[in-house]
Amino acid sequence: MAVIDAPVETDVDDSVDEAPDTVAGIRLPAVFARVHSVFSRRVIAMVVVLILLAVTLAVPVQTYWNQRGEFRRLQAANEQLARDVEHYQRRVTEQNDPAYIEAAAREQLQYVMPGEKPLVLTYPSREQHEQAQEKAREYAANPWYQNLWDAVSTPPEDK
Q1: Which pLDDT score, from 0 to 100, does residue 16 have?
Q2: Domain residues for 53?
Q3: In this predicted structure, what is the pLDDT of residue 18?
Q4: In the chain, what are the helix, strand and coil shares in percent, each to the nearest 5?
Q5: Which of 10, 95, 107, 112 has the fewest CB atoms inside 10 Å of its own CB, making it the most exposed?
Q6: Which residues of the chain have pLDDT under 50?
């Protein structure tokens, strides 16, 4: 069997639009052109499938992350509520103690036991304290003879 290497003349137009076996203006053998077209179709099909898969899974994945965040927030709220319940249960048991009731009655209602003498201390209010300090500053700023004249000319306020 002999192979003849004779040039074959064909009327082939080198334009890109009409030649099926060219890629980007480069002439390819027919086998490579066919593989290239099949490969590009598969790539395009795979890209389309991946895009559809991403679009299909986007909403469920977003829902999953949202629900997971909500679950964490609810767990934190439940833990806070459990701490509040424990705090209030301690207060209820504390308030059922007779010693606590007695101490609260003495402090808040100023109750005394029979035979005890009540002693009530009254402290001046903040305004009264500030007024007294202002009077002391004015008294210290006056000359001595003015203070003497004020003491003689005005009667005491507490009588």
Answers
A1: 44
A2: 22-119
A3: 45
A4: 65, 5, 35
A5: 10
A6: 1, 13-18
